[in-house]
Amino acid sequence: MRLFSLILNYCTLSFIGFLLLLSSCKENDNPPVSDFKPTPYEIEIPYAFPTKLNIPADNPMTVEGVALGRYLFYDGRLSGRTHPDSLMSCSSCHIQQNNFEPGIDNPHFVGGFVHGLNGQQTHHVVLPLINLVWNSSGYGWNGSFFPDNENPNFRNIEDIVRASVLAPDEMYGDTNRVKALFQSLDGYPELFFKAFGSQTITFKNIEKAIAQFVRSFVSADAKIDRYLKGEVQLSQSELNGFILFTTEEGADCFHCHGGFGNPLFTTHLFYNNGKDTIFDDPLDRFAITNDPMHKGAYKAPTLRNISLSGPYMHDGRFSTLDEVINFYSHHVKLSEQVDPLMHHVLRGGVQLTPSEKADLKAFIATLHDENFLTNPAYSKPEKFPDED
Amino acid sequence: MHKITWAGIISILLIISACQKTDEPATFGQIAFEVHHEVDGENLNTDALIYTNGAGNRYMVTEIHWFISNLTLIGADGSHTEMMESSEENIFYIDTDIEESWHIKANKPIPAGRYSGLRFTFGLDKTLNKSHRFVNPPESFMFWPTYLGGGYHYMKLNGKWINTLGKNEPFNFHLGIGQEYYEAGKTNEDFYVFGRSDNYEHCEGYLPPENLSPVIAFIHNNFTIELPLDFEVKSGQTTQLDLVMQVEKWFNSRELYDHDQWGGAIMQQQAAMEMGCRNGVEAFHLRRSN
């Protein structure tokens, strides 16, 4: 009996010693693997939204991954530099209160046309970051990043992160420098551990964290959402606009920009919407598919929060929604490539009257989601991990 | 307690083995259809201005997206065998751009034996055609606006034709729920009193804009047809058949459909959709796969 308790005591002691060893490890080195327990991040599917999500199998979303991604998205040192003039991050061009676009009145980017750290303007204007987890057909104006791309470097938002760090017209950075810089910043290695199980920062994990954060951006709380759920009524003018939006004899927008059955307010597909007759942009949809019928075709962007997304179209040719509506009304141009869905083309457009235009605009305003623009979960963190 | 359990297990085992012994050799097979889109007997060539319809319109087709539902095999003895476990699953979206969508396969064993044809619904019938049935693309992109009756497009057949001015004009031959519009002489109040149709809930509360006439009723344009073909499903084997849509027949089978008459958009022209559907009845046939 005595011997037994002695043995027991010995075991207890050595166990305590083992625990001590473990905890000392914690202070000096990587914590034991058992501490790596990320919490799955669930995207709640809003009313009538698709249930299929575009999340790569090797980057499941976690609360810790999204939290880390939030810091990186807003940290100007993502450019790999620390000089105040050389800071740039995603948030330099994708600003929350502007629907994650620069905004047409951006103080740094005149007219909303952005340029990279070296001053070079981007080839196309910025796209909003909104409900992107529901897009499986391709990111970018021409859809160059899509899941089953043969080129594994152009498949998803992870790849866009790398592309924008490297691009001369964006951060013009160097991935090795970026990861070394974040490795040296207090607090970041711990956050990488929590998200990915290793304090050693890799650029892959930087890509993954930011992509997770961007996938968490959900806008589904506009007036139209509450109307579709039957919670509010639209005004007479908004209703008129909705009917115009969803009828062929009206403004005829729904085939490409959604409606009751497609509350994303985009198909994320590519169309030539009849702006031009000569197509010489080397980065249109044709550049991806090589199908000559796709010349001058671009992605139809979502119309959610569209009033903040100017300048409009891939080249930013229109600065107001009125100009856009006038274009669809009277200035659509015939070409071999114009999409058949633009069937009003021979009349120059859908020929809306001034009061119809006002109704259409009133309807489009119901796609405005203020809660998305101010949601604290998507906002800039109060301070970065290395700040006290 | 134990005894009962053992007795139970043993008797179950006995029953199972007994069944196995008396069971006939498997009497089920499988059936699969491959969908073909053809014009004038040849595979459809999209984006090529090489076709002429009965009304003399030169035209091209850019894409066809459509739904087929309620697929049922007709037995030689007149019996009916649904292709799928449930009618909710018995809806297929077919898209000329998506090769996987051309293959339709039963999801349950099909009794072996002789059959005399296939019955199906083009589009979605009244029970199936409900908004938000599909939330995922590409099916969700087929939604039919609520103001026009809701549910889904049965078909989007898009293309261009050379119009009377010699111009390349787009057409959207879109079929779905049709509408009957209010005619002069009745007031908005009348509309709300007698305007209740089956699908009216879609439009509850709508007051149409001034220059749009109010909808007073909806018409379900879907149709169900039987395609005759003698074929056999052999036990343990898959019978492979071709389901062919003869695209030109939408425009010239029973009546001549003239794009110059109807223009590029017909979702709000019930007469055009009706004519299209009358022609559509003749637009399909079944054949053995080579």
Q: How are the strands ordered across the major sheet of chain A? A: 1-2
Report the CATH C-level class of the largest domain in chain A: Mainly Alpha
Computed CA radius of gyration of chain A, to the nearest angstrom? 25 Å
Helix and strand sequence of chain A: HHHHHHHHHHEHEHHH
The low-pLDDT segments of chain B are 13-22, 188-207
- End-to-end CA span of chain A: 56 Å
Tell me what the CATH architecture of the largest domain in chain A is. Answer: Orthogonal Bundle
SS-based class of chain B: alpha+beta
Low-pLDDT sequence parts of chain A: 1-28
**What number is the mean pLDDT of chain B?**
86
Helix segment tally of chain B: 4
How can the largest sheet of chain B be summarized?
Answer: 8 strands, antiparallel
Notes on the protein architecture:
The complex is a heterodimer of chains A (388) and B (290). Chain A has two domains: 63-218, Cytochrome c-like domain (Cytochrome Bc1 Complex, Chain D, domain 2, Orthogonal Bundle), CATH 1.10.760; 223-372, Cytochrome c-like domain (Cytochrome Bc1 Complex, Chain D, domain 2, Orthogonal Bundle). Chain A has helices spanning 2-28, 63-74, 90-93, 157-166, 175-183, 188-196, 203-215, 223-228, 236-245, 254-257, 286-289, 321-330, 354-365, 370-374, and strands at 270-271, 298-299. Chain A has a two-stranded antiparallel sheet. Chain A is mostly helical and 388 residues long. With 290 residues, chain B is an alpha+beta fold. Chain B has one domain. Chain B has four helices and 16 strands. Chain B has helices at 2-22, 188-194, 259-262, 270-280, and strands at residues 28-39, 42-43, 51-52, 58-75, 80-82, 91-95, 103-105, 110-111, 113-122, 155-162, 168-175, 178-181, 215-219, 223-233, 238-246, 284-288. Chains A and B meet through helix 9 and helix 13 of A and strand 10 and strand 11 of B.
